[in-house]
Amino acid sequence: MKSSKRLYITILILVCSCTIGQKLKGQELTTVRIGDRIPNVLLPELLNHPKGSAQLHDFLGKPLIIDFWFLGCSSCVKLMPHLDSLQKEYHGKLQILLSTHDEREKVENFFNRSRYVQGIKFTQVINDAVLKKLFPAMIMPHQVWIDKNGIVKAITDGNSATRENIEKFIEGKDFDFVPKIDEELDPFVANAVQPAMLYNYIGNKEKILKYSYLSEFRPEFSGTSTRSIEDPVNHILRFKSMNSHFLMLYNFAYGGGLGILEDTHLKTRFIIETNSTLPRVPELNNYNQYYCYDLICRYDGAEDGISKAISKYMIDDLDKAFNVKSHEEKKLVKCWVLKEYGDSKVYQEPVGEGMGFKANAEELEPGKQLIIENFFVRNLTQLLNYNSEIPFVNKVGNKGKISFIVTWKPNNVKAMSAELRKYGLEIALEDMERDVIVLRDR
């Protein structure tokens, strides 16, 4: 299932609009639920349709499945051959209508060039701004099953589109499906736009001294982290980090709500010496180690007041919840150091084909080429720190782009430096003083 979650987004302000009672070009758009009759709205732009536009009711008279997708949803694309086979098998008995917010040119290019969907032709709504308001969704795939009379029978993901269910659907019988819950349909809940403390929050927020919430992983929330001023007059701030790994929560806590900086290296940022419930060897892919944190509190009006308030309350909350005592100290850590060599600036010129940009730093394998093409130095350092076993420190500078090709040989620094020198770069292993967060038993 393709989700909008991204686990390490640091600062992201989300703006959501209510789907109830909106109008688009004169059309009343009200969220449609299971059991409702669909409105006869205009679909102004269709692909693979003789008229190029249609009313939604034009597709009734036989059971209809609307399948929502977008170009970045690999799970959606993987369903298409299966949906195509269903459409052919039940030709004349079933209508499958695809819908995407992507533009015509991008959709046409995708179906022409992708080997996975070549030869498949669906009637589909493109540049959609209507159906997504009627049937909002935060998680894809997203399918709406509508009977021949226009009544919504199911809103679910792609797992219910089995032949057994399709046949029952065509015959007007009940079929088995797992309905999407409200949290998967409502952007206000899915993005945690409202605080966990919902009751009359707006009317009483100026009275808040401190409120915090910590829970285990909640799948209805997207993985976002924000810090914002809720009330500048009364000096009230809010910091939230939904579905973040516990290491990231501590990183936020000691950073005053600021997350991954370019030289942040989570694998060496922490020393874990505890017998508490926290694992000694954290697993970034284990959702049991992810938590939701929400803080509303007062802050000092000084320049660093917001960061100090977040650190003060958040460290205390996390330590109490995980039954540990944390602190930050300086440690010597072995680091990769990338720096300039001589006066040459060849690294500022394109390499390879000289087209676009590229960075395969997620493939740091011994003996494999690391190809960097027109990549911002600052972004490269952050990417390398995410994938390397030891920290990367950038001494090239944070401005401009960088290009080079080098064979990754972590056990032969001299050989790597020899390759890099033709670009005006070199690499070294050095012990450097780093800020480390230590977690110990209370």
Write up what this structure looks like:
The chain has three domains: 17-187, Glutaredoxin (3-Layer(aba) Sandwich); 193-322, no CATH class; 332-440, no CATH class. It has helices spanning 74-89, 104-113, 131-134, 163-170, 182-185, 187-190, 201-204, 246-254, 266-269, 305-322, 377-387, 413-420, and strands at residues 2-3, 22-24, 27-29, 42-43, 46-47, 54-55, 64-68, 95-99, 124-125, 139-140, 142-146, 152-156, 210-216, 225-231, 236-245, 270-273, 290-298, 324-340, 358-359, 369-376, 392-394, 401-407, 425-441. The protein contains twelve helices and 23 strands. With 442 residues, it is of the alpha+beta class.
Give short descriptive properties of this protein.
3 domains, 442 residues, six-stranded mixed β-sheet, TlpA family protein disulfide reductase, 23 strands, disordered N terminus, Thioredoxin_ResA/DsbE_sf, alpha+beta
Number of strands: 23
If you consult CATH, what is the topology of the largest domain?
A: Glutaredoxin
The CATH architecture name of the largest domain reads 3-Layer(aba) Sandwich
Give the strand line-up of the largest sheet.
Answer: 5-9-8-7-11-12
Overall average pLDDT: 85
Intertermini distance:
40 Å
